[in-house]
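Folding follows sequence. Below is one example:
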Amino acid sequence: MTIGLIVNYNGGVSLARCVASLRHSDFGARPLLIVDNGSRDGSARAIAAVAGVELLELPRNVGFATGANAGLRRLLEREAGSILLINPDTEVAPDFFAPLQRALEEGASIAGPKLVLPELPEGRHRAKVPPRIWSAGGRVTFGRNLARLDGHRERDRGQHDVARDVSFLPATVWLARRDLFREVGLFDEAFFCYVEDVDFCVRAVERGCRLRYEPRSRVVHEGSAASGGGYTPLRKYLNAAGGFRLLRKHGTAARWCRFLAGDVLTLPFALVYAALRGRPDAALWKARGLVDGWRGRPFAGARRAALLPGDGA
């Protein structure tokens, strides 16, 4: 049996849409556990009324890694052959689940779908164009942003329609064997959010586990909805700080060089680029993240209050 796991933080209508799409897909009526990270919008309690949905409420926002681990510990006590870890800012295709199941049956430890961005409303005079890809699998590079998402922001014209083993699958949607978490362990809770999936994939690949990108499975992903989008102070800060922890755990001379060249030495260019986009705050927070990551400073106190105002921590 497969059990679904969603970590929610103020998911709002996105959470309801995600659960509805699961129920109308070939995932069907399988049980779902929602771990709520101290949400203030009532989204998790509202969806808990849906049949087959179980709610685990945490008293405060402990971050994705810790929230996911709370759910995984509960599910590992049950007779689940696999766990579907899925973000609330997703909407699955009706037939998304079967290809992921087949990938596990064929020996994969984790299977992940093709992730596409939502389509824009079609204008009266605009021809319909293929959606943009958010991820067609990926690879851990230890360079800029630590991992590369294959096909990122490309129009989906079938160029990434071949299933293959990869070294990175974003934890937006994973179908994972239950035993994987006993072999590899859980998420590293020192990562509040972001980078924890990179770290997990590195550990899994080091243990000989197969990560399978399966393009016949398709999921729409809003893209960092819980943190306000991709280029935000929170995301840039946590990615930068998390990079140092990742390298301290898995770094070699070559990996450190790629990280320093890709994320540290390019910081002046990032500041200029962010200023041109009208988002200098994000680049400045990336600089703070690099400093705090180098110092090993935890995400707490004034930093957390500034980036997650009013989250009740």
About this structure: The CA atoms of residues 3 and 218 lie 19 Å apart. Residues 2-222 form a domain with the Spore Coat Polysaccharide Biosynthesis Protein SpsA; Chain A fold (CATH 3.90.550.10). Confidence is low (pLDDT under 50) at residues 225-229.
